[in-house]
Write a structure and sequence with these properties.
This protein has about 130 residues and is of the alpha+beta class. Helix content is about 15%, strand content about 40%. Strand 6 and strand 7 form a beta hairpin.
Length: about 130
Amino acid sequence: MSSPANAASVALIHKQKVLLIKRAYAPYQHLWTLPGGRIEPGETIEQCAAREIKEELGLTVFGLHPVMEQWLGKDKAFRLAVFATQGFEGEIVPSDEIAGTQWVGADEIGTLRTTSHLDLVLAKAFALFERS
């Protein structure tokens, strides 16, 4: 039996762009990635995702769609649940954990120093909201 997710991140998508954050501290210092973090006792993984977005960016999210799960860390200590949404509100007010924020289109991801496989994760996230 596999262990449940113990961390979450969220792709906030608006007008074919995703909001990326630049991490201010380790792990992943100076890399662009999705906002998120570790689960706290008593939370569901969805509650974790929403809380992390509120703490890191000051935004309220809703309508989270599961994208995928991936193992992170040298010893695969974290099972990250990735969500995507177009539902969020508020003003972006980055916490001190964040060195920068940037709205990025799918074609720009390759020009940034990102966490591993972020391009593949975002391709799946964008696909959830493609217009048919």
